[in-house]
Amino acid sequence: MSHKFLVSSLTAAVALSLSATAMAKDAGGVERNFEQITVIGSQAAINDIPGSATFISDEELQKFEFTDISRVLASVPGVYVQEEDGYGLRPNIGMRGTGTGRNDKISVMEDGVLVAPAPYSAPSAYYFPTMGRMESIEVLKGAASVKYGPRTTGGVLNLLSRSLPTEANSSMGMVDAALGSDGYYKGHAYFAKEKNNTAGLIEVFSYGADGFKELPVGDDNTGFEKNDVLVKFGHTFGENDAHNIEFKAKYSEETSDETYMGLTNADYQENPNRRYAASQNDEMNTRHNAYQVNYAYRFGKGYEFLATAYLNDFHRNWYKASKVSESYLEQYSEFEANPTAEGIENIGVKANNRDYQAKGVQSELHIPAGDHYITVGVRYHEDEMDRFQWEDKYTLNQDLSMTLTSQGAPGSNSNRLDSAKASTLFIQDEWTMDALVVSAGLRYEDITITREEWAKSDPTRSQGLTKDISNDTEILVPSLGATYTLNDNVTLLAGIQKGYAPAAPGNADQDEEESVNIEFGSRFNANGFNGEVIAFYSDYDNMHGNCTASVGCSDDNIGDQYNYGEVEVSGFEFSAGRTFNTASVAFPVKLTYTYTDSEFKNTFDSEIWGSVEKGDAMPYVPENQVALSFGAEVNNFVVNSQIRYVSDAHADLSDSGLNAIDSRVVWDLAAKYLIDENQKVYLSVDNLFDKTYIANRANGGIQPGKPRSVQMGYSYSF
Length: 718
Known about the structure:
Elements: H1 2-15, E1 23-25, E2 31-33, E3 53-56, H2 58-64, H3 69-72, E4 79-82, E5 92-95, E6 107-110, E7 113-114, E8 136-140, E9 156-160, E10 171-180, E11 185-195, E12 198-209, E13 224-237, E14 243-256, H4 265-270, E15 283-299, E16 303-321, H5 326-337, E17 344-369, E18 372-396, E19 402-406, E20 414-433, E21 436-454, E22 465-485, E23 490-501, E24 506-507, E25 513-526, E26 529-540, E27 544-546, E28 560-563, E29 567-581, E30 585-600, E31 604-606, E32 610-612, E33 624-634, E34 637-646, E35 664-674, E36 679-686, E37 694-696, E38 703-704, E39 709-717
Parallel strand pairs: 6-9, 24-28
Antiparallel strand pairs: 1-2, 3-8, 4-5, 6-7, 8-9, 10-11, 10-39, 11-12, 12-13, 13-14, 14-15, 15-16, 16-17, 17-18, 18-19, 18-20, 20-21, 21-22, 22-23, 23-25, 25-26, 26-29, 27-28, 29-30, 30-33, 31-32, 33-34, 34-35, 35-36, 36-39, 37-38
């Protein structure tokens, strides 16, 4: 389907003429985009935020033409990314020592709305928005992130989709196509138009690859294909254009031949990109629908009322080998070396079939009151995860093909519904006293999380529940931050907040995760240099560990959540950048560095992390991360390079897992030639020197990082 879809969608995107959002003028007469989707808003707004913040603009995203969020975030201080598939389809993102598993310790949003399929009832899910169609990205950590729960410990990642045109009677569009290594292809197009205070946009993004891993049988690839369509409409009306309404609809689908089955140490050393024949039927299929309606009303002297209603539906079925522990991997490896006529019987391939839904309404009222700027917000949210799974049995034959021997009944492996209802209220007061700005916030959440379970022999769910548990939690989350403008070049900042994450349905003790998070530092802009240096400290009272297959949990315990006691995390972040100019060449340079010291304060046994000793560092949290980017701009030719260093890290806390993730240096390179103001050709090379490295060991065995890959493309904007 993908290539037909690509051609037809690109044609539609270029041909379709629509309409869109609006502009208004604030009390000071400054023209601005009349949307409520941002956390930061722009690079210029960062200086007013009492905490670490990063804004990645469209211009920055275009430097490398990355479609992998893992590579985009590599240069953001305080962010850790555990790679999985090599293409960024299912990233594992953490901030400031929170851990990385399935982004379950941060709040991920698209256009200001929680984007996880079930952020309260099932935080460890498998959906991530298509990074390649995003216009900009915002990362917020520290006290200012308290507005954006439910997870307020690590921070916020807000991905901003393409905005509507704001200039009267204007239009804009773009067509972008690329081909590359391992059968990689990308097609991206959008068209937008504004007329008579009405505007609209359609955008299509389609990409895929055959994959870089090798199966020993068949002609099936180990790659993926993903298609994404976005439509927006907006209208501004009323006296002085005081009202704005915007509608957004998005559809995406993905088929990826991915697996949790990694490699043994010996096989990784021989061929890091190998895959075992027992994983040949593994395939992920997903479908995502999202709808969002925004309303904004500006009145009085600077007052704003913003409201959003949203609905996200997500279906996925990951059909994959269910036994991927070390002993099974050794068995598969030995059989491939010496296949026998009897084969390997009873290989389970599980249909991890799940349906998710999240919906809600949220609103904010912005109140200017002299030296105070007050924000009051409310949100009502519901979400659920419906697990209806089964397991088929196969025989791995002597010729390495697989034969289905028994088919599982739907619901016979897992038959349960996890759901949540949450009511949220927050208030934040920003008090300006000359050079000092104090921001105080308070967040209240009332959360009810429920797990209902039916017998695995009851697919119709007509015989009554076998389990019905519920947990109701009320929590207050305070924050206090401040900035002080020392002079035109230096701003000091400090903040303290309570970190919080609700207990999931599978938490036997129903204990919430709580922490105290402190940060202080400064931002600077002097002699052409700009950046920040910030120290941070977090003291966890009860850290959660979410049991998923992605972190190596057994099938029987997937979906459970464990309480692991006290953890301390401290460190500092540094970033600095400058563009050096000569008469004919510009040399942009940026350096970021993160130091993290994490430490468990108690001893315990863990299915997720192994035997934890007091003083152990957290798995998948490297002590040191460095990213250096530099480039050259000469006339119509631009080249950029990014060098990333990540120190070694624990895979788990067993003897074999300590420092089992090796340190690495990975280079990425990008170059483009500007044919004219509308056209460009570009080349990008990921992993320029073809560094072989272990991306993770959290699943079954070793998963490699993506080897060197090359993409070439052409883009036309109008």
